[in-house]
Amino acid sequence: xxxPRALQRHFGDLYTLLSTVTVEKSPGPLRTERQPAFVYYxxxxxxxxxxxxxxxxxxxxxxxxxxxxxxxxxxxxxxxMERGLSRNTLxxxxxxLRKLARWLEKNNSPxxxxxxxxxxxxxxxxxxxxxxxxxxxxxxxxxxxxxxxxCVREGLLQRDPSTRIDAPKLGRPLPKSLTEAEVTALxxxxxxxxxxxxxxxxxxxxxxxxxxxxxxLVGLQLGQIxxxxxxxxxxxxxxxxxxxxxxxxxxxxxxxxxxxxxxxxLGGQLCAAVFPTRRGEGMTRQAFWYRxxxxxxxxxxxxxxxxxxxxxxxATHLLDHGADLRVVQMLLGHxxxxxxxxxxxxxxxxxxxxxxxxxPRG
Length: 362
Known about the structure:
The protein is mainly α. It has 16 helices and three strands. A hairpin with a 4-residue loop joins β1 and β2. α9 packs antiparallel against α11 and α9 packs across α13.
């Protein structure tokens, strides 16, 4: 089924762009030494002054022993070097481990290296009773397993206390999406006669046209956009690079924003971020999410939104109109096709609802 004209302007001709665009490799000798992906990306693409070190430390709200603090930081360093995890993931792992360390200290138990399987089970059970959802509990257990496997591998422990602990059973909730009419209302909500509103409209158009993660959107740098080819180069999870084409609508708003609205926001300040604030700094995920909820309220969208709502709408609407699943997988930056396949369930669910609503024997 061909895309309707309105969606063509948002998504563009994905298949043509994806089949004709090639990535030019920078000239120079081949690198013979392995370099951390963050350092390599920083040296190639971004002004170092605009980068925040993904391993930057954040102070814990409650005291954690010096031994446990050092151990947690060493574990985060190892994860970053071995797997190239994002800053947000590393911070989540460190937060979970600090929470366990504080709980152990409060209960007069040994530190992280002296914990027993029974203590881990008690901690996980308490987290479940206080309202932690199964998916969050599974992530917590995954963090502990990786941490203690690292400790065994480094010779800090002889056995892993997290073994034989079953993860909570997870359902498979379908991602919440918006209809095409709701997306249109959301995109048109910002007041574009104001610099902030113009920026927000360009961000929403870009988000819906490309399916970026919110962290990828707010972290976008000027050097990652090619207006001539209508492409944006994204460094996603695990420092994996992908090219995503821009539709006509998003490209038009982005060009006009870069030509005028961005300068009005900066007021002569220098900033490498595509979407800065008036302070001359890149916008945070939290600030942008606050802006989305504000515009959703103005657009009369009552359903609950999540930071990935427009990303879900991007994938769902493409599949609704016949896009190939593997193309959507590539655009979203999913490493596993099974992650993308959940959107086919969304499309089927929508078809069932339409059939039940409109068929005489539905």
